[in-house]
Amino acid sequence: MDESQLIARLKEGDRAAFKELVERWEDMVYNTSLSIVQSDEDAEDVAQEVFIQVYESIDSFKEQSKLSTWIYRIAVTKSLDAIRKKKRKKRNAFLQSLYSKDDELVHDPADFVHPGVKAENKEEAALLFKAIDKLPENQKTAFVLNRIEMLSYKEVSEIMEVSVNSVDALLQRAKKNLRKKLEGMVK
Amino acid sequence: MNKEQKIESILNSLDGVERATPRPFFFTRLEARMQRGEATFAEKLLGFLVRPSVAIAAVVLIVVMNAFVVVSTTLQEDKQQQVNNSGVEIATVDQYLEMNMNPFDAEKVDP
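ok -> structure tokens follow
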């Protein structure tokens, strides 16, 4: 089934077409979400939300871009929302811990290790992901899509709805910032 | 390895990274969540409808609507009655004119 047929069937509410869409793009959505939110559990949750939104708002998809571009866009937006929500929760928990009687500490989750990283690089990649987590949202998005999802500058520019030159600038700034952050982390 | 080389090595640690995949049966879990979501919506709607404030407001609304229907029907009936009454009056006027017809006109009609 080609993309336009799939879209037409999705718009008719065809459940089998939805299953095909999920099976076709679940790895892409999960990997993007996981690289941004850096937690298996949150990535699964975000990936499910992405497909629910695709199912519910397929009628609003005007086919001005590829379906995968639209899905990537939703995945990035949902992942960044999940991070914001988590940070807000963490901040509230911290404030509550300041006023609560029991000295309950709020712990940072353990270092994230992307399961697709080669075994010999896992230790170094954990440090890199810590630095990626501290990047501004647009630099993080460009870096993840280009370096982990292996998308071209053009594909990244279509997903982020910016020019190819802007993607180039974002990636250069991301690398510069990562280098700076790693300098403080490496002894 | 000096610090600069170490940083370079860290920056290159994603070389050859493979796509992460979700746990098996992702679609089954997604479907279950979507069904739960639909059930939750129905439950929320039912929960909203059985709230005392909503139930009282619904009863008041029904009473007001009934009262409106009764009042408007009564008014309509009164109006109809008035129309009927004015019809009787006209008939009476016609009868009056007929009864008080000029005798010369009658002559004109019936030579």
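Residues 112-187 of chain A form a domain with the Arc Repressor Mutant, subunit A fold (CATH 1.10.10.10).
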